[in-house]
Structure to design on (401 residues):
């Protein structure tokens, strides 16, 4: 049987960051992905400050070839039905990348043995080792690893195979993103978020390399005609005209972050990135995927080289990332902990009258009532925020019990 120190499942930024750390620590590391690489990933591809810093420090310069145009994202554009579009600028450079070539750069630069079209099927914990079943080109094989790092995204098969209880009772959403050739009256430096009822919690738009990118998410079980409603809305309000459809991407998302239901793993299996439930406001998830991969790799190195309890070390080092993710869903803290510099940002309504501000607030409330009707989520956010305010910190069951 093939034997590795570490098997990393998933070659997104979380997995590649974990693999890089393990390789730098001299560990025999296998990084697998079920898809043929480079693979697409539903994402706006905006690289926040913290992600850039992590990559420069651990992987080196980001190659020119992965950037899209416009080269730089300026920030967000919020659309309120009664007030129109309000632009907010970050105080930093946020490049746009294409996730297929960007992720492939990270995976190759990790230096680990990289295998695509290799599916993680399941694992068995056997004393000091983990026996993993993989499917390579339709053939099942067993490999052994001293640790497994699960970086297989929000709908994690690693979790489903060895800790299915983690997903019990969670609310799930489907995200769909389509690429078009055509015309639209929108500023290509901003990511638009339309606070309009009837189009799901995140109806968005951005432009990259002259492609119009339109996406929305809807809760599993909700009516799924939200995307069509968004297209009609854009035709009516932003002059969208479509010449041809170029590509479609989709993925699943869940509510682990706002529900404070992180899962850092168990025993010799450490989870990172989307798979462990880390996420920032507006769906920014690259910075925490990269950081958590680094922490998991460092803990595994200590486990193998010093005989330390890697999982205990990981729980300690990953806690601040969980705190930041909770801050990002805490209205009193989100600005202070955002992954890109927004310190110089004036208030959202600085150029608007008080009357406009009230109208926008009314729009936002109607939007939240219509689209964020997720069982237990508001209560969880309020409880976490109140605890942070009154007691100075969060209680995080995944690491504090
Ligand atoms: C629409 C949208 C827009 C976004 N925009 C941004 C943005 O602009 N900036 C930002 O910072 N974040 C953004 N995010 C979030 C970001 O995409 C994720 O947080 C990030 O990709 C998480 O990285 P990861 O490595 O944890 O997982 P992923 O990038 O999801 O990687 C998981 C990998 O695991 C592989 N895999 C899955 N199952 C298996 C299996 N059984 N066996 C082997 N391999 C498997 C997959 O093929 C995949 O390559 C966006 C998310 C969405 C949905």
């Amino acid at each position: 049987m093939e034997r590795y120190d570490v098997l990393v499942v998933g070659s997104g930024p979380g997995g590649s960051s974990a693999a890089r750390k393990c390789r730098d620590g001299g560990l025999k590391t296998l990084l697998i992905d079920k898809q043929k690489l480079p693979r697409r990933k539903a994402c706006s591809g905006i690289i926040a400050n913290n992600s850039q810093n992590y990559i420069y420090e651990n992987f080196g310069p980001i190659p020119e070839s992965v950037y899209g145009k416009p080269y730089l994202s300026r920030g967000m554009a919020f659309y309120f039905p009664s007030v129109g579009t309000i632009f907010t600028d970050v105080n930093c450079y946020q490049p746009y990348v294409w996730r297929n070539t960007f992720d492939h750069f990270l995976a190759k630069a990790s230096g680990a043995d990289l295998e695509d079209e290799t599916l993680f099927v399941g694992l068995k914990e056997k004393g000091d080792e983990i026996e993993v079943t993989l499917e390579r080109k339709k053939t099942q094989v067993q490999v052994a690893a001293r640790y497994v790092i699960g970086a297989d995204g929000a709908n994690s098969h690693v979790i489903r195979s060895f800790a299915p209880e983690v997903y019990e009772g969670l609310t799930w959403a489907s995200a769909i993103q389509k690429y078009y050739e055509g015309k639209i009256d929108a500023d290509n430096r901003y990511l638009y978020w339309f606070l309009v009822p009837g189009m799901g919690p995140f109806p968005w738009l951005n432009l990259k390399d002259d492609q119009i990118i339109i996406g929305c998410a809807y809760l599993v079980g909700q009516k799924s005609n939200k995307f069509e409603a968004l297209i009609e809305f854009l035709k009516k309000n932003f002059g969208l005209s479509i010449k041809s459809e170029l590509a479609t991407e989709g993925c699943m998302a869940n509510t682990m972050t706002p529900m404070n239901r992180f899962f850092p793993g168990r025993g010799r299996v450490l989870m990172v990135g989307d798979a462990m439930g880390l996420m920032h406001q507006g769906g920014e998830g690259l910075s925490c995927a990269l950081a958590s991969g680094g922490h998991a790799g460092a803990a595994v190195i200590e486990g193998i080289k010093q005989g330390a309890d890697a999982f205990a070390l990981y729980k300690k080092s990953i806690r601040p990332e969980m705190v930041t993710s909770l801050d990002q869903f805490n209205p009193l803290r989100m600005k202070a902990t955002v992954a890109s510099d927004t310190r110089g940002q004036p208030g959202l309504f600085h150029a608007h009258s008080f009357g406009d501000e009230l109208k926008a607030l009314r729009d936002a409330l109607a939007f939240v009532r219509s689209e964020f009707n997720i069982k237990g989520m508001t209560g969880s956010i309020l409880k976490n925020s109140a605890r942070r305010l009154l007691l100075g910190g969060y209680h995080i069951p995944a690491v504090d019990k």
Q: What stands out?
A: Residues 156 and 320 are 22 Å apart (CA to CA).
